[in-house]
Amino acid sequence: MKRRKPKHQKRTNPRILILCDGLTEKNYFTALKQDPERKRFLSALSVDILEAKKREPIQIIEEAIKRKKKALQQNNEYDYIWTVFDHDNRPKLLDAYLQAIKNNIKIAFSSIAFEYWYLLHFKKMAKAFPICKALEKELQKHYPDYKKAAQNDYVLLKNKLETAFENTVWLKKQMQHNIKEGKHITELNPYTDVDDLVKFLFSFSIK
């Protein structure tokens, strides 16, 4: 009598990849994962938070696709893949989005930079900034402790998260008329949907 091959046991907890375009984003989400108030829930997940090897959005998506395929080949596939990048006047943004959609990869996008998410922790604002440096200068008026790629941004800002959520929803509503006119979100300034990724991670701590 032949023995039956053991069935592959499906993971009960999802495996997640968050591929970031810089240290600022990587440090923020690493600190979120380590938050004592969330760690009890998030530690049960397999969350890989990595800095991308290259900076252009299309290159980040291509790396995410390669990591997705490699994980699948190793029978350790990702259930969710997120990429985090900003506008910062980079090329081929729309191409990156189209590739991401094709490969079921989600994007947390900010314009002009990730720091707009930080700014929304303090106030409602729909002001466009042409470059990241201009945004950082405005941010420091409200957040004097801000330093590029700091490791403690999440910790210092987490008590203002509800304000950030509310202000981000407000900003998206302000941008709706541009979207209705046919603009893609990569053409918007300002814009951020980093809140979608934060809420996604938080959703596991309330189950």
Strand content: 5-15%
Number of DSSP-assigned strands: 5
Helix and strand run: EHHEHEHEHHHHEH
What number of structural domains do the residues give? 1
Number of helices: 9
Q: Order of strands in the sheet with the most strands?
A: 2-1-3-4-5
Low-confidence stretches at least 5 residues in length (pLDDT < 50)?
1-9
**What value does the Rg take, in angstroms?**
18 Å
Helix content: 40-55%
Instruction: Assign the structural class, choosing from mainly alpha, mainly beta, alpha/beta, alpha+beta, or little secondary structure.
Output: alpha/beta
Q: Quick one: biggest sheet?
A: 5 strands, mixed
In whole angstroms, the N-to-C terminal distance is 44 Å
Shape designation: globular
Give structural notes.
By secondary structure, this protein is α/β, with parallel strands linked by helices. It has one domain. It contains nine helices and five strands. Strands 2-1-3-4-5 form a five-stranded mixed β-sheet, sandwiched between helices. Strand 3 (80-86), helix 4 (93-102) and strand 4 form a beta-alpha-beta unit.
